[in-house]
Design goal:
Elements lengths: L1 H7 L20 H15 L3 H12 L5 H13 L7 H11 L5 H11 L4 H18 L1 H30 L1 H31 L5 H24 L1
Helix pairs in contact: 2-3, 3-4, 4-5, 5-6, 5-7, 7-8, 8-9, 8-10, 9-10
Length: about 220
């Protein structure tokens, strides 16, 4: 039964983590423009270019619609060779936050696969998830923030006197926002790992290592304040 849950992803407990709370990349102007551009390219039938943007520019940002569209293009053979197994893996990635539409499409497609195809889908899906899934994405953002926080603290130690109190206060506020963002993202990962039965042991191990680094980094941050 556990294997079936992993293969089909029928457990939707992750839906309890609201989509709006996902602490990933903020949809800035460049991202919004890219989304509009690629949708236009797809509508115009420029599938090769659309696939490249969905796959290499938006999907790595955690854009679930883009990940779904990569799967759809594999399923329909638009801009890429038709491949139902790869399509199913991308549908599974798109559905990992529990959005109803993506969950429905994932389950419908998975129900059509043979046992051998489902086994192949597992391999492709977990490879994609290790690279582009929410755990990997948020962990990477936390690592970036930890590095930034450490750099700002070091800079503060050497420049407070020369720059004056106003500049110091500005840097302190920026560092505090970075620390708050780290805490928010760690809470998200902890919730996700607590409710998602498809989380792998490798993901849990990576999270434990990240948690230790965050603990050290935040302790150093508090000490330097």
């Amino acid at each position: 039964m556990q294997l079936l849950l992993v293969i089909f992803g029928f457990v939707t407990a992750t839906a309890a983590i609201a989509v709006e709370s996902f602490p990933g990349h903020a949809p800035d102007r460049r991202i919004l423009e890219t989304q509009e551009k690629v949708d236009s390219l797809f509508d115009q039938g420029k599938y090769d270019r659309a696939m490249f943007i969905y796959r290499h520019e938006l999907a790595p940002l955690g854009d679930k619609y883009a990940q779904y569209m990569v799967g759809y293009m594999y399923l329909s053979g638009k801009g890429v060779a038709e491949d139902v197994v790869t399509a199913s893996a991308w549908y599974r990635l798109a559905a990992e936050r529990g959005q109803d539409t993506y969950v429905f499409e994932r389950n419908k497609l998975m129900s059509l696969l043979s046992e051998a195809q489902r086994a192949q889908s597992d391999k492709v899906y977990f490879a994609l998830r290790n690279a582009l899934g929410d755990v990997a994405l948020i962990a990477g953002l936390i690592e970036t923030d930890l590095h930034s926080l450490s750099g700002r603290n070091t800079a503060n130690a050497f420049s407070q006197v020369a720059a004056g109190p106003g500049a110091s206060n500005g840097r302190d506020a920026m560092s505090q926002r970075t620390a708050d963002r780290i805490r928010s993202r760690m809470r998200y990962l902890e919730r996700k790992l607590s409710v998602d039965v498809t989380i792998t042991e490798d993901e849990r191990r990576r999270f434990a290592e990240l948690k230790a680094r965050v603990r050290r980094g935040m302790s150093e941050f508090e000490t330097r304040r």
